[in-house]
Write a structure and sequence with these properties.
The protein has 251 residues and is of the alpha/beta class. The chain has helices spanning 53-64, 90-101, 117-128, 150-155, 218-231; strands at 18-22, 25-30, 38-44, 68-72, 87-88, 105-115, 134-138, 161-163, 166-167, 204-210, 238-242. It is globular and about 50 Å long. The two termini are 31 Å apart.
């Protein structure tokens, strides 16, 4: 049960993109058509690992409407940790640095689009990396969770994310369901260092969640994100809530 997972499928970038594999960055880049500098998106998938087909479809949609889009793999991919545990936030910073260095990218207009665990990482990064203009996060999280593995479900031994080689404070997923099996939002204390400091993000924030969610409590956690932003004097995020949708609500 503690063995590493099978390697994730890594999709080809296709005819309108190209593979980026250098200096610790592994991903597919989809430059938008047109002249002049245009905005760019760092695209983060969820717990599937690698570069998935579904996220490539999202990258192509973003490319088609004028965003240079970098879809990166942050675990279970060549050169990355096999499991989603203690993933360095520096991987995401590296992707943003790379986008800003591209001559076709308007470095003053960079955003993040993230899904599920990618939304958790996306909010963390937006709160830490200066200058992100906007983030659109589907099935978001208000906190840092433990890493994803069977061992972690039993013992909660490490975090999903790390920075400068140190695991971030995290909460355990154990017991996070009610008597009907519906996921519950984490209990948040005022001094809880596992809470993502949304108030440190100066850009615009869009959260998308489904009321029929069965993997984690994305709508209650979206409400927690909004409540913290307002309590800390930041702008309230926009929330799109779809009562009958599940974990596939965005994309």
């Amino acid at each position: 049960a503690f063995a590493d997972p099978s390697a994730a499928v890594v999709v080809d970038a296709g005819s309108s993109g190209r593979r980026i594999d250098a200096d610790g960055l592994f991903g597919n880049y989809y430059p938008a058509a047109g002249g002049g500098r245009q905005p760019a998106i760092l695209l983060l998938g969820g717990s599937e690992g690698g570069l998935s087909k579904d996220m490539r479809a999202q990258a192509l949609l973003l490319q088609a409407v004028g965003f240079h889009t970098l879809q990166i793999a942050y675990h279970n991919a060549p050169g990355k940790t096999a499991r989603l545990g203690n993933v360095p936030l520096e991987d995401f910073y590296r992707g943003l640095d790379w986008l800003k260095a591209q001559p076709e990218v308007d470095a003053s207009r960079i955003g993040i689009v993230g899904y599920s665990k990618g939304a958790e990482a996306g909010l963390l990064v937006a709160a830490r990396y200066p200058g992100i203009r906007a983030a659109a996060l589907g099935m978001p999280s208000s906190v840092v969770w433990q890493g994803l593995s069977f061992k972690n479900y039993l013992f909660s031994v490490n975090s999903s994310w790390s920075e400068q080689g140190k695991p971030l404070q995290h909460v355990s997923y154990q017991g996070r369901r009610d008597e009907t099996g519906v996921p519950k939002a984490p209990r948040i204390e005022a001094d809880d260092t596992a809470v993502i400091p949304v108030e440190k993000f100066a850009g615009k924030l869009l959260l998308v969640c489904g009321g029929a969610e069965r993997l984690w409590a994305s709508c209650p956690m979206a409400d927690q994100i909004v409540a913290r932003a307002v309590a800390k004097g930041a702008a309230a995020p926009v929330v799109l809530r779809y009562p009958k949708a599940g974990h596939g609500v965005m994309g």
